[in-house]
Amino acid sequence: MIRVLLVDDQPLIRSGFRALLDIEDDIEVVAEAADGSEGLALAREHLPDIALIDIQMPVVDGIEATRRIAADPALAGVHVVILTNYGLDEYVFDALRAGAAGFLVKDIQPEDFLHSVRVAARGDALLAPSITRRLINRYVAQPPGTGTGLKELTNREREAVTLVAQGLSNDQIADRMAISPLTAKTHINRAMTKLHARDRAQLVVFAYESGLVTPRSS
């Protein structure tokens, strides 16, 4: 059972998402909150698998709530998915840096929304290749980082991280690298451990900031 926490200051939005989730046999909404502070308290109380958090809220916004969840060892199993009205805006990259596993636009189709919740619950990043390219074009147009952490990775781990940043699934990475999906997952997990990455989305952020991925390679 996938346990979901809804955090949004608009009751109508929360009720709409809850109505979609409640009819699914494998998903349970365990709590709702109207701001990030309340959401953090409920996350600690219920330990959900997924926290769907609005990016702009009173008291504590979605970015700060995400940062606090990511920093709390007791909430290591909580995957934060940011909800936004505007798609790729100035706040989304900050949310990913804070520890979000990805983001969803609120006008998403119901079937895509449910699929995304299940994807996030598996620990996969919610970053489609088209979104990845837009992130690269916007944020890596700045001077690249120093590549801190790259030296810790093997060549195969670097290759796997690059493919993660391009939006590929484990099966697609395995095909591209001519290895088994299990080996691909091992490379990714080792890279996450070495880079102290909370999830795949943080590998994507690392790839941008280190210069491992550039606009030409997306």
TrEMBL record:
One Pfam family in the UniProt entry: Response_reg
Transmembrane segments: none
CDD domains membership: LuxR_C_like, REC_NarL-like
HTH luxR-type domain residues: 146-211
Keywords: DNA-binding, Phosphoprotein, Transcription, Transcription regulation
Domain Response regulatory intervals: 3-121
InterPro entries noted in UniProt: CheY-like_superfamily (IPR011006), NreC/VraR/RcsB-like_REC (IPR058245), Sig_transdc_resp-reg_C-effctor (IPR016032), Sig_transdc_resp-reg_receiver (IPR001789), Tscrpt_reg_LuxR_C (IPR000792), WalR-like (IPR039420)
Entry annotated with the keyword Transcription regulation: yes
Domain of life: Bacteria
Modified residues (4-aspartylphosphate): D54
Entries under SUPFAM superfamilies matching the protein: C-terminal effector domain of the bipartite response regulators, CheY-like
Protein's recorded name: Response regulator transcription factor
Organism: Streptosporangium fragile
